[in-house]
Amino acid sequence: SLREVNQPPNKWIVYEQILRIPYYFVYNRYTDEFHCFGLVMNRYQPLSMNGLGVWLEEAELGLGLWEGEYQGLTRQWLRWYDRDNNWLPTPEEREKQRAEREKQRADSAELEVAKLRQLLLAQGISLPNDQ
Length: 131
Known about the structure:
alpha+beta; three-stranded antiparallel beta sheet; 6 strands; rod-shaped; coiled coil
């Protein structure tokens, strides 16, 4: 495209022709329009979308639109997904999963201690906290 000599190139030109970034994504948060382009023969070409978004084979990741709550706002968000079409967890979701695993581990340990305490009591062995 022609442009004024004194004007810097736009992002599209910089990414496509100067930096040659392999993918270019455009998302309009007001209309939830999402477009993906891949560098083919030094020009961006539209990429076909699947049900979730676009799969990026080289990255082994997909990028798509997800409806849900993030940082206190419920709306559509761009989100990465894996080969099995599972959304990658957000930092908040990872922390929640970690806390749940820790709670399950603690509950399991407490149950094991209670069972061992019962076995000891059945053998006539009392523990300091059994009084």
